[in-house]
Write a sequence for this structure.
């Protein structure tokens, strides 16, 4: 049996409307994410020792893996982890950061609104396909970064991903077409800040 599986969404496809539409959610989850899982398992089928490792361990060490699986782990393993974090970071109606989280964001960015502005700008300006991330460094400070394609921050940095926004066109094109900034603005309405805070040091 394959080691990696697609976890069930914690909400129905239409739960995030009108911000993220049901059809996009269904296709994104059942087609794109499922494909990453299937192709990751297929690539590792002959590497039983690697199937025993956690996804995070594989990604942190992807550049040292056997050449035959290096790129599949990077692309499909990264896609699996990124999307898992993405779904878990969303909820119907969204939420507000706790006082503790808001204070941490204020310390790093000046205010919650300034953090949102900087994050949105980072997401909107990313060329091509990829992700915008809020990550936490080992000293507790926060920063916003971009990654290309399905790369996850842990693949090249010693950080904890707290919040990731998928800006591949498949994440928003049915509803927003080429209007990525509009999609980013809508996404803020469904962020699950409790889940984000659980990931903090």
């Amino acid at each position: 049996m394959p080691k990696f599986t697609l976890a069930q969404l914690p909400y129905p496809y239409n739960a995030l409307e009108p911000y993220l539409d049901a059809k996009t959610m269904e296709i994104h989850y059942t087609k794109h994410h499922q494909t990453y899982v299937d192709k990751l398992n297929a690539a590792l089928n002959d590497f039983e020792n690697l199937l025993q490792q956690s996804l995070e361990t594989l990604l942190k060490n992807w550049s040292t893996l056997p050449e035959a699986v290096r790129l599949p782990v990077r692309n499909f393993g990264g896609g699996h982890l990124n999307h898992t974090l993405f779904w878990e970071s969303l909820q119907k109606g969204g939420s507000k950061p706790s006082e503790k989280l808001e204070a941490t964001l204020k310390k790093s960015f000046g205010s919650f609104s300034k953090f949102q502005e900087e994050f949105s700008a980072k997401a909107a300006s990313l060329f091509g396909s990829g992700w915008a991330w809020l990550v936490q460094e080992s000293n507790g400070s926060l920063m916003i970064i971009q990654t290309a394609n399905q790369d996850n921050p842990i693949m090249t940095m010693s950080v904890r991903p707290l919040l990731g926004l998928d800006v591949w066109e498949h994440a928003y094109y049915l509803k927003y077409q080429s209007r990525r900034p509009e999609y980013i603005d809508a996404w803020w309405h469904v962020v699950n800040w409790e889940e984000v805070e659980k990931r903090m040091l």
